Amino acid sequence: MTRREFTPTTEYRYNRTSPGRWILSHVLRYPLPPLGVVLAGILANTLASWSRVLPGRAFDCVLGMLGLVVPIVALGTLQAELLLVPLVYIVLFVVTLRRYIRELNPVSAALREQFGTMNAGLAETISGIEVVKANAQEIQEQYNCALCSSSA
Description:
With 152 residues, this protein is an all-alpha fold. It has helices spanning 19-29, 32-78, 84-151.
């Protein structure tokens, strides 16, 4: 301990026996900044990965909208009466698609559950095969070791 001219009465004493303990004593006293750094790193990496996904989805959405909007606008500029059939078709298509998706959700959920069960069974079978192979290898090694010691 060094002598100092002024010493605060409420000074916090950090563990200075080693650099690691000094850092640990700071982290234990102030736990939020390291936690914030870890959470900020996770958030930054998550957002960086989404920055690759979202522009592609946005581009697909823009292309889909252009493929739908441009022909309708072109028809509207030619003659307004031509818009009736495409607009009715779009409304009926959206209604039908929503109904179909609502009916398909239980089927797809059951299918995902079946795939999960099948994958679990497959993983169990593969691990069982690995155990059998390891056991056979061990028996083979014991047999080879017995042959080596009997010939010596």
